[in-house]
Amino acid sequence: MIGGQHIARDEIRSYRLSARLLPATHGVAGGIIDVSSIIDFWHALRGDRSEIRLSCELIGEHQRVTLDDCFAIDEILHRIGPRLLASARDQLGRDRVATFGRLALARHGVQWETRDPIAFEAVDQISLVDTTPVQLFVHAKHRAWPYAKLALAAVPNVLAMLALAAELGYRVRGRELLQLTCS
Fold first, then answer.
1. Residues 89, 95, 98, 100: what is their CA dihedral angle, to the nearest 10 degrees?
2. 2, 88, 91, 170: which has the fewest C-beta neighbours closer than 10 Å?
3. Torsion of CA 24, 134, 19, 59, to 10 degrees
4. Cα–Cα distance for residue pair 86/110, rounded to 1 Å
5. In angstroms, rounded to a whole number, what is the distance separating the alpha carbons of residues 66 and 101?
6. Could you tell me how far CA 2 lies from the centroid of its own chain?
7. Other beta carbons less than 10 A from residue 75's beta carbon
8. Are 66 and 55 spatial neighbours (Cβ–Cβ below 8 Å)?
9. Distance separating alpha carbons of residues 159 and 167, to the nearest angstrom
10. DSSP states of 52-113 as a string?
11. In a 10 Å sphere around its CB, with 0-12 CB exposed, 13-18 middle and 19+ buried, how is residue 47 labelled?
12. Alpha carbon distance 2, 22 (integer Å)
């Protein structure tokens, strides 16, 4: 039972993480630019990080449960993460490609949506970037713009995807952005 909602651990088929900065005071309100967003942008340029708040949507066969409690997210991800990673490995072994939403990952390369795939050798890195909110980028070598830029919540089982990418030899960066700092 999670917050009055129930989903059994074995029923969880996937999850979607979202990450946002705290406090959530960014953007435009009433036509006035929020000064804190400018300050956060300045701090990001300097390499300073703000505290990130995670939420997690657990997806089962017939139900969805959303968590925003750090301890609950940490516990659930530690319990279901190995199973979902094993499932991704099985899919890779069976189909030669593991899919994570609209992102396909294989030993020979990466494909996003309907774009032409890029070969393993052409992938510079797969990274999580704190762009307020955290997003997933796939960078190609010798390219200024990323090959793919995805909202974190658009990538099912993102931690399993990053772990599998690292196992396949892709350079993976930014996982520390999703470290749960429960206080």
1. -130
2. 2
3. 140
4. 19
5. 19
6. 22
7. 15
8. yes
9. 12
10. EEEEEEEEESS-EEEE--HHHHHHHHHHHHHHHHHHHHHHHHHHS-EEETTEEEETTEEEET
11. exposed
12. 23
- Residue 168's identity, in one-letter code, is L
**Up-side HSE of residue 17: CA atoms within 13 Å toward CB?**
32
- 13 neighbors 61 (Cβ within 8 angstroms): yes
* CA pair distance 130, 102, nearest whole angstrom: 21
- What DSSP element (H or E) covers 180? none
Q: Angle formed by the axes of helices 158-167 and 70-95, to 10°?
A: 50
pLDDT in tens, 120-175: 999 999 999 988 788 999 999 999 999 999 999 999 999 999 999 999 999 999 98
**Measured distance CA(68)–CA(24) in Å, rounded:** 14
The DSSP secondary structure of 125-162, one letter per residue, reads EEEEEESSSEEEEEEETT-SS-SEEEEGGGSTTHHHHH
For residue 24, the SS3 value is coil
